């Protein structure tokens, strides 16, 4: 609804004219009638806005758009990717300095850090009903 709605302006002019013709004894009924029309216009405008906003949200969901933020791809998989990249030099250092035992210790450290991160963020240990629909299928 615009600030200057021509239709409501006409209604107000008609209400004022009717008050002039009918007299002050009908003033309350005329004001109530006018306010009813204003309320209907507001309801119509509000309904239209709500429908438009719901349609926009449904389009966003239908297109599969997800807001970036906690739980986004980068946050959920960043540490795992960095861990795999760092695994090569850590494995080499472990093998050169301590043999197979060094390799095992390096990989236990990598797995431990990732398991702790997954448990802290709730990625692996969330209950099934708490998982987002995009999490594992099952």
Domain unit count: 2
The N- and C-terminal alpha carbons lie at a distance of: 48 Å
Q: Which regions contain 5 or more consecutive residues with pLDDT less than 50?
A: none
Please summarize the sheet with the most strands: none
Inertia-based shape: rod-shaped
The radius of gyration is 33 Å
**What's the helix-strand series?**
HHHH
The helix-and-strand class reads mainly alpha
Q: What fraction strand?
A: under 5%
| Number of DSSP helical runs | 4
Provide tags for this entry:
single chain, mainly alpha, 4 helices
Give a description of the structure.
There is one protein chain. By secondary structure, this protein is an all-alpha fold. The chain folds into two domains: 6-62; 73-130. Helix content is 73%, strand content 0%. It has four helices and no strands. It is rod-shaped and about 105 Å long. The mean pLDDT is 80.
Quick description:
It contains four helices and no strands. The chain starts with 5 loop residues before the first helix and ends in a 17-residue tail after the last helix. The model has no long low-confidence stretch (mean pLDDT 80).
């Amino acid at each position: 609804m615009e600030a200057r709605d021509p239709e409501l302006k006409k209604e107000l002019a008609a209400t004022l004219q009717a008050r002039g013709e009918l007299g002050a004894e009908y003033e309350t009924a005329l004001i109530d009638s006018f306010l009813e029309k204003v309320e209907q216009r507001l309801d119509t405008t509000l309904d239209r806005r709500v429908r438009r906003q719901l349609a926009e949200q449904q389009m966003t969901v239908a297109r599969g758009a997800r807001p970036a933020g906690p739980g986004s791809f980068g946050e959920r998989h960043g540490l795992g990717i960095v861990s795999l990249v760092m695994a090569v030099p850590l494995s080499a250092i472990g093998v050169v300095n301590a043999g197979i035992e060094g390799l095992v210790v390096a990989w236990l450290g990598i797995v431990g850090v990732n398991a702790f991160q997954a448990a802290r963020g709730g990625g692996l240990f969330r209950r099934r009903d708490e998982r987002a629909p995009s999490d594992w299928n099952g």
